[in-house]
């Protein structure tokens, strides 16, 4: 065996499919001075016992694209490396046994169409023709993805490793990393029993070992191990090698052909955590004890679907541990806690399907310093401090595991690990009928039940109008006609302070933040491609101090983006927990606030786009004159110990009712305010998203991303954001519906909902076409495909609601 080098540019830890795929792609990117270290043998962790199904469709276009990349790679890998991969593109079938599931499947078919993935809806008979061993008496319908398939996980991994070696990447087995060496906050290298390798970057792909290994250098990777079983049968007559993979989510099970028999497994609603006290030393090529009792919960349903199972011989009930995460998505990217430390772990039983794409993305991330495209759903920065609690993570992860195959209801909330982070108003809001949702551990009021009228504060989910429809409508209209108060304490808030604060912030903000003290600026922060990395509100509190407000879920991400791009003498501090936020919104907001505040609240004294320190009910309040709902209003930021006093004072005297986050969503859709993670993100620029007005183009001042915007202004764009409405109020838009212009597919909705003032379904999406401009957009006639059916739609370029009276501008 070759000798371990003493230096390398990058060290990959872990020789499962993910580590080997990263190694393969590092080689392709020319980073051949990369070393992969595996503590035992390649594949000996989780990879060797995967079932090998490769599905592609996810709810995000980019993650679907990532999985599609895996398929493209697996198709050609064998020819390139000479090592078999077992790749078989036999397609994937998905069944629906009730109307709600059928709606879900039809919506998935539309999503697939939006993302350019082939997916066909089938009758039960057509599905049975493809899978003759299947009983179909209860089927409502099915869907078929012809480009899905299956592979041999160990073979693919070995083939990727061969490809990496062919490019010059070195791979060492039986070489555990026993320490990651960090000095003065910087990575220096890794230590193994065979010596130290000094390196610039560490890419940790250590599967279920990743949490403790990364934790040793302060990096939080919220994953836990869960037992996962599947059964392997003897040969069954009629099982042919071309049989598609089959998913029967209503029976919580999946199926795949293997040497003439079936491999079938499922997701129990009562999963069993594993290695709660740590992974046993030396665990490799190991399996767990088969638990027939636990597995037996699938048997009856499975035999009802595939009667041949009743008499088929059982070769093995395989039980293997796999790492799962609280939201069912894997974890990718550079750790916010430690520069040059990259993570690829937590693959939730789709690591084989993701392996090719995740390895490509992580290698690019490490080599180029940024992901190839927006990967927010899997970005390591989607987590926060609450995810440092392993008990929290385990509770939530087990719930997510149990829901793997249950219907993914629109706006569904998780129930476990709650409540954790609470605003001081939690008890007040609960007593007032709040139905809470959860974000990054925070309890947030989604909507309010009228308890006096017998309403119950509990979500009732549906693919039609959900249970909270009327309540949200009530809150929406109250905001448009009077005044509402919304507890937005969970907003992430940072202060940036120091003599260089203004200069540094202005370099990373596309808007001009270097304005008079008391200014309030809505701005995006862009990457060098002009993509929107953050969408924030900035208040200038002093010549050397700024207060930055961003969405609850973006706390870690935005803090990381801002801090990594700051220059000079200034410090960024997260002050989220220190201040509560009450948003007082509506045409009567001024009237209500004036009852308990003697400061000048007039338009002249406190204009839109300014921030003032005022006194409300005797409490010090930083008031921001801003709105996300399109009405007169203030965001009142105050020390958390004042929140109850201010809230009670606001509510005393009447005229102001509670509203929640679901009302905010319908209100902002009508006004066309953008939401990061929905319509805007790193792949979309302000030019494309209609936000150029917020950028300091004319000032001549430099800022990150300026050159990219200038190029787009001069050369045109390939997509532009537009609003859409549907005249039929019964249509439910949720996002991902396909957009057709003059019968041609031109994009999909990034978000969807309902506008209760305009009484229409509303969606936003990019119209995609080289050189697309206003003339092109407004000249076509539009349709949206919703759950596999087309409905006529109207395109809008401005806000849909105008408080001055005109409800819809066409
Ligand atoms: C029963 C079961 C069925 C599955 N079925 C499917 C399926 O059908 N389709 C699908 O896509 N996925 C499936 N999966 C999931 C898939 O197996 C995993 O997501 C994937 O194998 C994870 O790969 P990995 O590289 O992240 O982890 P691993 O394969 O565990 O690799 C991590 C490696 O890191 C090494 N390591 C750890 N610590 C160190 C250290 N300190 N130094 C050096 N090396 C270290 C380990 O030895 C290990 O080899 C299934 C999983 C299970 C359990």
Explain briefly what this protein structure is.
By secondary structure, the chain is α+β, with helices and mostly antiparallel strands. Mean pLDDT is 97; it is low at 805-810. Flavin-adenine dinucleotide binds at residues 13-19, 37-40, 44-47, 49-53, 153, 176-177, 205-207, 209, 213, 228, 230, 284, 320, 322, 345, 347, 349-353.
Detailed description of the structure:
The chain is 25% helix and 28% strand. The chain is α+β, with helices and mostly antiparallel strands. Strands 4, 5, 6, 12, 13, 14, 15, 16 and 17 form a 9-stranded mixed β-sheet that branches. Strands 1, 2, 8, 9, 10, 11, 18 and 19 form an 8-stranded mixed β-sheet that branches. Strand 13 and strand 14 form a beta hairpin. Helix 1 crosses helix 9 and helix 2 (61-81) packs across helix 5 (153-167). The longest helix has 21 residues, at 61-81. It is globular. The model is unreliable at 805-810 (pLDDT under 50). Residues 13-19, 37-40, 44-47, 49-53, 153, 176-177, 205-207, 209, 213, 228, 230, 284, 320, 322, 345, 347, 349-353 line the site of flavin-adenine dinucleotide.
